[in-house]
Amino acid sequence: MSGEQQQQQEQLACVSHWFSQWGPAEKAEFLTDLVLAAAPSALCQSDEGLFLVCSRLSIAGQQQPSLFRCQLRLFRDWFANWPAEMRNRLAGRLEQLDPAFAAEFYRRLAATADPGAQVLKP
Known about the structure:
This protein is an all-alpha fold. The protein has helices spanning 3-21, 24-38, 47-56, 67-81, 84-97, 99-111.
């Protein structure tokens, strides 16, 4: 296993651990982030995607980000650099940890292929 693969395995372990510690509100926000990371075209298909992009913009004078916000930022950075195999491992891990969450993720991801579906809104 290369050093990069080992690092990605550690990142996956971190995301899995964080997910297991998050409550329903954090999981709901992560679900939106995960769908948008997995299908960037979803940004253009919903008001929620546009709102999420705007809310990520840094504005001087904002409060320090919460631990959860830092975790999401790390997740986004890591996920963007993961190969498809690692992304699939994350999906498999989420299926093990929370089958209902994984089912909703797959449902929303599939709906990104149909812009008229409007399922990105909770």
